[in-house]
Amino acid sequence: MTSERHSAPSTVRSYQGIVRLFTDLLIDARYGWVPACEEAFGTFPVAICHEWNTLPHLQDYEGDPEARPSTREELQVFLDYADDQVERAVRAKRKGALAAYRDATLFKMIYGWGLRRTETSKLDVVDFGRNPQARQFGRYGTLNVRYGKAKKGQPPRRRNVLSVMDWAVEAVTDYVENVRPRFGFTDHPALWITERGGRLQPGSINDRFEAYRDALGLTKELTPHSLRHSYVTHLTEDGVDRRFIQQQVGHECDSSLAIYTHVSDDFMNTSLHKALAPAFAGA
């Protein structure tokens, strides 16, 4: 007895593409397979993969719908715990104090700019720039994400993310200017470096996140990507224009953004009251 197999959307799409190419070859009049099959088998091949029944048409977004953002309370507890690890390492005069500070700032950055884990890992110090519309952020007004998620067979997509959270900018500024130089590798381009002078890898980000999450007893549903979900959700709840958020996180269509948004019940109730207010204004 065989068990049911669930393939990833990208795998299903690849299978469909192979079948489509094969049937296109069979029915191409230049090769004569249609009359040959009809003569030999009494039937002929036809196309079976169309725009209306293949994955790209039926499913615009391939993300995991079960992933969820952190609540504001979970996020605050997590970031506070990350800061506490820095203080504990400093008090104990442990060697890992710099790494703890780096990681605490890194998590703030993933949330503060709505980044993916790999995008964050590949950032360089020079990727920051000024935004004339937000002079208060200085040279940290924009972030040039050079390694955004790529489409299949294409190079990484680049995008500029505007800084919007002042507390996150302050945290990153302090790290870059006061903490990162203490690692001792001033010539290394990476924003996030290890104590041995290498670039921090996505797996290490995941390991530290899970260690903090589990120590706090938070649900295992939460991952580093939950911070990106939180960015989208919290900005939506705060009334930020969805088109702006879509540009910030690098989504081409609003349907992709929608699955990132898990607004709270309070937000839904407030929105409902705003929608109904004009109708009951004269009552």
UniProtKB/TrEMBL annotation:
Keyword presence, DNA-binding: yes
One record GO biological process: DNA recombination
Tree of life domain: Bacteria
Residue stretches spanning the membrane: none
MF terms in GO: DNA binding
UniProt xrefs under InterPro entries: DNA_brk_join_enz (IPR011010), Integrase-like_cat_sf (IPR013762), Integrase_catalytic (IPR002104), Tyrosine_recombinase_XerCD (IPR050090)
Domain Tyr recombinase: start-end pairs: 65-274
Keyword Nucleotidyltransferase: no
Alphabetically ordered keywords of this record: DNA recombination, DNA-binding
PROSITE patterns found in the cross-reference section: TYR_RECOMBINASE
Family (UniProt): Belongs to the 'phage' integrase family.
Protein name: Tyr recombinase domain-containing protein
